[in-house]
User: What shape does this take?
Amino acid sequence: MSPQNTQQSSDSAFGPSKSDIVRSLNAVVSSYDGAALLQNIVGERLIERLDLVKIQPNSIIDLGSATGVYTGLLQKRYNTASVLGVDIAWKMAAQAFKQRKWFAKQRYVCADGEYLPFADNSIDLVFSNLMLHWLDNPDYLFSEMQRVIAPGGLMMFTTFGPDTLKEMRHSWAQVDKQIHVNRFMDMHDLGDSLTKSGFEGAVMDNETITMNYDDLTDLHSDLKATGEANLNPGRHRSLTGKVRWNRYLAAYQQLRNSVGEYPASWEVIYGHAWATDKIVANTGKNVGFLGNIKINTL
Assistant: This one.
């Protein structure tokens, strides 16, 4: 496999439920790091973009921290800052704590990004790598970020756009009308949501990263191993079946590149914006919140 570059609450009918997300991410703790090549490519590029902004944060959140790779890098980059990894999946937070070096200062908490256990204006930088695509309505999360980030603080993130896995979506469309690929938000909708939530100076751009596979089953294995498998409410919950899989495979084979590899395109959206002192009501943010999550700081 090789990469190639070309430059409502979550419990609604549009996207996966938060309970499904937590269950999926908790299940891949042991396999995630070994399969997260794409996540690491994108995360490294997001870290590099911090060179382009003037900020010396004292308090940082790594939102959707998974196993803590970028929480650690943020702590290394801003060594005097207080850095906290936040993930909705408690097993991910526990794994991140377990894997950190014995002298590391960063800590981890299990919490819902739409309802954080932090004081108003208490954070200077929110860094989030490939977490926002799980959201149905970004307004809830962005207004919560506007609450916790101090005026003049920064939110910097990546997420997947609607052209993600377009080859897979096209190939399954030749087989049936079921939902086989997670749905993703448009870059412009995210920018509008940032402005609506009180942020200023929003900058958005995107790129397409194509991962090429010799065997199509390897793509599906990577999706499963990183918790990115189809979690949409309308997904087909029974086994695919040999006949349907072979029809899907035949359709995807028509999209192979010149060396016979199966391409998997990922539209990666990069965004950042600055928090203000505006107060934006967020009456819907509690909808779908996993109220039974116990907040444990590790």
